Amino acid sequence: MGKKGSNREVPNLASRPPVSITLREESSGMKQTKASTKSILKLQHIKNLAIWTSGEASIPSFGAFFGHHLAACSESTGTPPDPSLFPCQRCESILQPGYNCTIRIEKNRAKVSCRCKKPKKSIQNNVVYKCHFCSHRNLKRGTPRGYMKEICPLKAKPSLKPVPGTSMGQKSDGLEKGTRSTVEISKMDEIAPPAIDTDDPVTGSPTTPLVKMGTTLLEGKKRKRNRSGVKKPAESESNSATINAETTVSTSSKRRRKSWTSLKEIAESHDNSRDFTNLTEDPVLLVPEESNQKPYVAIIKGCTSFLWPDAAVPAVTALEKAAHDALSSDFQKYNQKMRQLLFNLKVSFVIRVTHSSTLVVSSHKFVVSSMARSYLLFPPDSKLKLGPSSSLKTYTPHFIASPFFESLRVSGPDFFASARSSADVLFDHQNSEFSEILQEYGNKMVELSKRIIEFVLMSLGDGYEKVYESEFSNCHGYLRIVNYSPPETVEDEEVEGLGMHTDMSCITIIYQDMIGGLQMRSKEGHWIDINPSESSLVVNIGDLMQAWSNGRLRSSEHRVVLKRFVDRLSLAFFWCFEDEKVILAPDKVVGEENSKIYKPFICLDYLKFRESNEQGKFEKVGYTVNDFAGLKFQMSDQH
Ligand SMILES: O=C(O)CCC(=O)C(=O)O
Ligand SMILES: [Fe+2]
């Protein structure tokens, strides 16, 4: 975490309106009453969190969350809003120039139209604070001379950062929506450094001080965007955050596009289109290839900032608060907690394999196109030689999982041998290329699965890495190469290529081709499109992991919908416990205060249960590990 505290002076508040009421108060007409000491302390704590998350910690969604919480608490306790804070009118993040907003002077029309008179010292300019989170332009009217200097002092010391609560002024009665700026948003990254005397009555001087944000979700994004370049060695997050902050300020006489890139992109990409009610981003776990590099999170789905789903907010808040209390001096540890949190809260997440894994990606394409040839060109009777009544049983024909679904199974650990045995039946000539590619792909998936399991264990808390050896070292994997035939009609009704189901694995890694159609079901029951991406793999938590983790990790419900009249191909890699393993959540995973919600069971018995109960169909979520091994207290929200 960045340095706390500041050597900044408390700004001159003389020009601020003496009384401030929030918009909520304005509309509700709520009367302020005296708050108890306890509520004042609580409020103070929330205020600290709001300031910290909006500013130094740069966690935009938390910033907005705590900002909102602060406003609501102030009102409920009847405490007047802190006049030194300037919350965004839309998302309620505490606006802090250089961290979560850009400020610029806007021409004071009154001043211009009345040149003859010397403007009053106390109403010199209007200042627009553009919130980087929600892109709202907050206008502060009539700021006094010297106001910008307070925010952007002439000679910033290296450690000097704009600090929340300074120079922000009170929420102005005159705040307006949609006020005009004289500088185009596209120039936001060409921001003049604090050294410029920004309080000149020159309109449109961009004035945000360049202060590097801490390394958090946004930093993850920045790295994601850089992934097409040459891979950089891992760097200490806390160090880089500090170093960057220092360099940025000390070289403030130069215009540096780089340090603002991510913020600019946030502002630009959502300038007009931000819809707070409809955000369904998934975090991305960027998995570096080298084991000494740490994984880091970023955001996908075209959204450049992250909002926790509503259901996750209480848990996030609780952990955030605890992390803030315990780790306020250690940014790196804090970030680690954040990553753990991501894992704990998501039932499925998307992995974007870093650019150095191009091998995997190119293998996808190759395998997919090979299989396209196999499935599309081979006559059904040739494929049926591998079907359910054959000795190999590697081919699942249409009308078993669904009328549209057919698949070929390639089992590890010797993916070559498995592929070869099917290929020998399918191809009338030797085709070792096919088997070699599948071997390479399978082996890559094994490696990746091991690493993902390690990360998943990390997410459960400290010390879980140690159980890897005893619990997961005998896992094995198999691949399923799936072809979905196009439906005859695609009407309003969605055609399910594969109905809703959970996987019987620990984890599943899916690659889908660019046709798309994979959907995950949210906890609230909404289907979320997992948009295809050539360099993305989707990772599902499976039933075995759900049982092993005593429900702390949830098996994801997913399906495939066919929206287009073309074949769809996918590769699913299932990473499973060994058949004979007795699956029982370790006490540490369960936690002292909780009870086990699954009875112990043998892995193979569960697989058989699924097969027999579902009669070969995938789509019945009714028969899962809950039904098989769930004890009285089913999948509660005890965690
Ligand atoms: O085809 C896909 O994208 C998903 C396949 C799947 O969920 C499965 O085979 O279990
Ligand atoms: Fe699946």
TrEMBL record:
<feature type="region of interest" description="Disordered">
    <location>
        <begin position="193"/>
        <end position="259"/>
    </location>
</feature>
<dbReference type="InterPro" id="IPR007175">
    <property type="entry name" value="Rpr2/Snm1/Rpp21"/>
</dbReference>
<dbReference type="GO" id="GO:0006396">
    <property type="term" value="P:RNA processing"/>
</dbReference>
<dbReference type="InterPro" id="IPR027443">
    <property type="entry name" value="IPNS-like_sf"/>
</dbReference>
<feature type="compositionally biased region" description="Basic residues">
    <location>
        <begin position="221"/>
        <end position="230"/>
    </location>
</feature>
<dbReference type="InterPro" id="IPR044861">
    <property type="entry name" value="IPNS-like_FE2OG_OXY"/>
</dbReference>
<protein>
    <recommendedName>
        <fullName>Fe2OG dioxygenase domain-containing protein</fullName>
    </recommendedName>
</protein>
<dbReference type="Pfam" id="PF04032">
    <property type="entry name" value="Rpr2"/>
</dbReference>
<feature type="compositionally biased region" description="Polar residues">
    <location>
        <begin position="236"/>
        <end position="246"/>
    </location>
</feature>
<feature type="region of interest" description="Disordered">
    <location>
        <begin position="1"/>
        <end position="33"/>
    </location>
</feature>
<dbReference type="Pfam" id="PF03171">
    <property type="entry name" value="2OG-FeII_Oxy"/>
</dbReference>
<dbReference type="InterPro" id="IPR005123">
    <property type="entry name" value="Oxoglu/Fe-dep_dioxygenase_dom"/>
</dbReference>
<feature type="domain" description="Fe2OG dioxygenase">
    <location>
        <begin position="475"/>
        <end position="578"/>
    </location>
</feature>
